[in-house]
Amino acid sequence: MSQEIIEVMEPEQDDIIQSWCSISEAGNLKEGYDMERFTDSPRKDFQCPICLGVVRNPLECSQCGILLCKKCAFSCSKPQNPFFIMTSSVLKFNCPICRSRAAPREPSSILKKIINSSVVYCKNKLHGCPVSEALGEIKNHEKECKFKAIRCANHGFCDKQGNKIDFISVEFSKMGKGSYPTKSKLVCSDVCRKVVIMDHLLKTDQSEKAINEYRIVLEQLNKISSF
């Protein structure tokens, strides 16, 4: 009696599920840092071969060692089956240099520290900010940078935009009775300041004060329109 021989094939590397990046995560990723942001020219091997910026959220090809931004590595990947919807597809990395299909890996912590120690200018440099700090620390500064572009908090009536340093801060913690959370807003003018104060008073059940602020705003607007 002849025996049927069944050939068992080893799974190819291309068929192994790669979990280095999820579809949902990829939408929030960004390309590399602009080379012009660095105070000194970065090392060439820190430059992503796809976006040509310094690698952001870096990944390393496990075969040739090239560094890529995580977003750019995602762009080098493809679904397991092009007929599947993206949310159910498996990402398959395809290195743009050596064409390796092996999943990319995290670079060493030492390498990431070296990249993060590179000194960069604040992204608001063109608006007048003189600050430069290590790449790994500059975000903390940029969150509070006085030169970042903002919009007047009086969104309903004003679309003025400009640098944070040129706006007026409105503090709400000292207004009215009751335990309202401490917060502040930035506005472009005294008129807009009174409008956001009035809005705050209405939201915190202080109608009389709100009406008084409304009267003051109307008087100021009348004065402006009379010029």
From TrEMBL:
Entries under Gene3D superfamilies matching the protein: Zinc/RING finger domain, C3HC4 (zinc finger)
Claim: Zinc is one of the keywords in the record: yes
UniProt KW keywords: Metal-binding, Zinc, Zinc-finger
Molecular function in Gene Ontology: zinc ion binding
InterPro entries tied to this protein: Znf_RING, Znf_RING/FYVE/PHD
Swiss-Prot/TrEMBL GO biological process terms: regulation of canonical NF-kappaB signal transduction
Domain RING-type: 48-99
PANTHER family given in the database record: TNF RECEPTOR ASSOCIATED FACTOR, TNF RECEPTOR-ASSOCIATED FACTOR 4
Protein name: RING-type domain-containing protein
Native species: Stentor coeruleus
